[in-house]
Specification:
The protein is an alpha/beta fold and 368 residues long. It is built from 11 helices and 12 strands. The protein has one domain (3-19, 34-366): Histone deacetylase domain (Arginase, Chain A, 3-Layer(aba) Sandwich). InterPro entries: HDACs (IPR000286), His_deacetylse_dom (IPR023801), His_deacetylse_dom_sf (IPR037138), Ureohydrolase_dom_sf (IPR023696).
């Protein structure tokens, strides 16, 4: 098996503005010692470093990719938005949306991030790789066509999907988003489409507060091809795997895609500062294994994971290592130092029954 790993040092150089966690500095908000937004380069850089130290990198086809072209970006984002983004980037940076600051050259870095996702998906569909992981930064799944938000400047996955559809490399694509926040941007871009299935597993009413409801099923040709799986805060591994088995799997089975793309956030981690979920590195390995089984059943194993959120500098590298090692079917391990702690915090049987009843209601609402 050949697993690709797409990355570029320049993506680690993306920088934002003067924030203290999620609040702009000023007034009574004092700058933090560490500075900046939770979306920092260190989670991704430490993941790559951990892979180098364990030797996992040497088991992968590590490579870069060209930035997404203007034409590729314009399939998803209006050209007037792209021109504003490019001009502000050239002038030294700024902010066009909500919590999406960028510095000089931010446009080029975002295009490179989208290019990594596009290169990974294209290589898998051309048969050059069995599967692949794209360490994209900045992330993308919150970005709407003309409004960046939630640290996302361009919608990496949507740009990649539109490219391979336009090139005739695929006709039907399933996007499964297990980032802890609702994939509102990807949903909005494909909401009217029948050729792209979007499924989002997320913490209920985390971010954005007003999207991600189970009743949002798509529109027009896309009716029924958008599926939201909001889960209650505190959902642990048992609940996540149940939601996958009872909702994600049958929905993807019914759609039968040519390729599966996972919006791979690690912010459902038990120690993530932006969520209240309880997953360990092993949990992400199990989700990856399930995604691989789905891909094997429907599309010859064609599967691409694209990095999204995850804000614990300690834990993200171990979660990512577990997912990528599973993707490569590698025995190279990096034991999760927080695994025992998170295992001890898993919900008890009573809460698991509550989550199962919650999933029962979702199954009924989605008519699965």
């Amino acid at each position: 098996m050949s697993t690709g790993f797409f990355w570029d040092e320049r993506c680690f150089w993306h920088s934002g503005g003067n924030y203290a966690f999620l609040a702009p500095v000023g007034g009574l908000v004092q700058p933090l010692a560490a500075g900046g937004l939770p979306e920092s380069p260190e989670t991704k850089r430490r993941l790559k470093a951990l892979m180098d130290v364990t030797g996992l990198s040497r088991a992968l086809a590590c490579q870069g990719a060209a930035p997404a072209s203007w034409a590729e970006l314009a399939r998803v984002h209006p050209e007037d938005f792209l021109r504003k983004f490019k001009a502000l980037s050239d002038e030294g940076g700024g902010e066009l949306g909500l919590r999406t600051p960028f510095g000089k050259g931010g446009f080029e870095t975002a295009a490179l991030s989208a290019g990594l996702a596009t290169g990974a998906l294209r290589a898998v569909l051309r048969g050059e790789l069995d599967n692949a992981y794209a360490l994209s930064r900045p992330p993308g799944h919150h970005c709407l066509p003309d409004w960046p938000n939630g640290f996302c400047l361009l919608n990496n996955i949507a740009i990649a999907v539109e490219a391979v559809l336009a090139e005739g490399l695929a006709r039907r694509v399933a996007v499964i988003d297990w980032d802890v926040h609702h994939g509102n941007g990807t949903e909005a871009i494909f909401y009217d489409r029948a050729d792209v299935l979007t499924v989002s597993l997320h913490q209920d009413r985390n971010y954005p507060l007003d999207t991600g409801g189970v009743a949002d099923r798509g529109r027009g040709d896309g009716l029924g091809v958008n599926v939201n799986v909001p889960l209650p805060p505190g959902t642990g591994e048992v609940g996540y795997l149940s939601a996958w088995d009872r909702i994600v799997e049958p929905v993807v089975d019914a759609f039968s895609p040519d390729v599966i793309v996972v919006a791979c956030g690690f912010d459902a981690s038990g120690v993530d500062p932006l969520s209240r979920m309880l997953l360990s590195a092993q949990s992400f390995a199990k989700l990856t294994d399930r995604a691989m089984a789905l891909a094997a059943r429907h599309c010859g194993g064609r599967l691409v994971l694209v990095h999204e959120g995850g804000y614990s500098e300690l834990h993200v590298p171990f979660c990512g290592h577990a997912a990528i090692a599973t993707l490569a079917r590698s025995g190279i391990a990096a034991d999760d130092p927080l695994g025992p702690r998170i295992a001890g915090q898993q919900p008890g049987a009573a809460f698991d029954r509550f989550v199962e009843a919650w999933i029962d209601d979702l199954v009924v609402a989605l008519e699965i």
